[in-house]
Fold these 2 entries.
Entry 1:
Amino acid sequence: MAPELGRRGAALSVTAFAPVGLWGPVSRRWCQASVAAARACARSCGPALPRLASTAAGRVALFGLFFGHPARVDPAAGVADARALAAAPGFAAARDAFAGHRFGDAGALADIPVTVAWESRDLILPAFQARRARRLLPGARHVRLRGCGHLPFNDDPHACAGLVAATAS
């Protein structure tokens, strides 16, 4: 979302964490399949989610796709997130829309500060996609968040906030 907001002139700076649209067709399909599987898991576990999330092993199984350190996820927050994913009314439309989204106009970001972060333990949008990001956005600052998963704000909130602040200043 951040690169697109920057491209449209709606942002004065952009910090993107493993942004969608910088992928090839295989990576896009992997992303779609992964989030669909996570949703199916959340739906099928239903009432058992709190019990599963109460153990470190259960949190690894439930949240390992999204977090670099899933055992550290707060059980109640993880259950709430899983239930929200299971119930999201726009999920299918959003997932399907990925097929039509590829970030293209890097020139539109030439006049604003841009940072692109890839998380070293991201299983949804793997860090190898950073190579394509460097080609598409050569003027951006590219960083790797070590030990973080697809949702790095839980794994290392200070590093994420620091990147946003550094890019905005």
Entry 2:
Amino acid sequence: MDLLQYDFMLRALVGALVIGLAAPALGIYLVQRRLALIGDGIGHVALTGVGAGLLLNRSPVLVAVIAATLGAIAIELVRSRGRTSGDLALALLFYGGIAGGVMLVGLSDASSSALNSYLFGSLTTTSPADLATILVLGVAILAIMLALRPALFAVCHDEEYARVSGLPVRALNLLLAVTTAVTVTIAMRAVGVLLISALMVVPVATAQQVTRGFRSTMAAAMTLGVFAAGAGIWVAATADTAPGASVVLVAIASFLAVALAAAGRRAMRRRSGPAAVPAAEPHEVVLR
């Protein structure tokens, strides 16, 4: 069966591929800053925005963008001023966001299926307007992450060094927070607010098993994100499973496969020992 003969499947695939490319490009900076779970916190704030939009009969996605952006800026300001730890700020967002979202959706006339579509994703119901939004914002996020890679890497690796170097640290941190909020919001249609953090982090963690440099890790993570998105949509279409969960499970399966392969390779190297290295011939350089 040709799955791409259906317009809704084609839109689902294109949307998933764009998100699969953009999410790891942003996620590598979050992993570098040890804020791998910030997507969960912001996602739950976005859920509050969804509930407010449903209650006020406004666009849930638009209100979610506003709520997620404000939440991301708030957590960045709290973190940068050092008044509380990043983990505590994330916990407050996590619990407050999901509680507020559930309460507001309950007060609205929306059905439970509407809430589930945002919690777990509903990519096959993506409309042409939704796809256009995903494409525009996804390309913008990807362009920012690639164009500002040296500056963002410096800020995420060592803020003090970046500040001494003359970089606008606070502006870059706020930019990173806002792009995280936007990524979470557009990815709600693909994997849902409960699973978006996995698409940001798991491809990066998988790439780190086999790469060393930041640039190569970023490229590998983006490639793995696209693979997980495409393969997940195929699995969902053929096995009639939830697209968001399928994408995330493919990403986790890739991580396990790469981690096991890397562990086996290291074990073989330890067993072989120095004796496995051949003696160098005259004028021959042995590369390790």
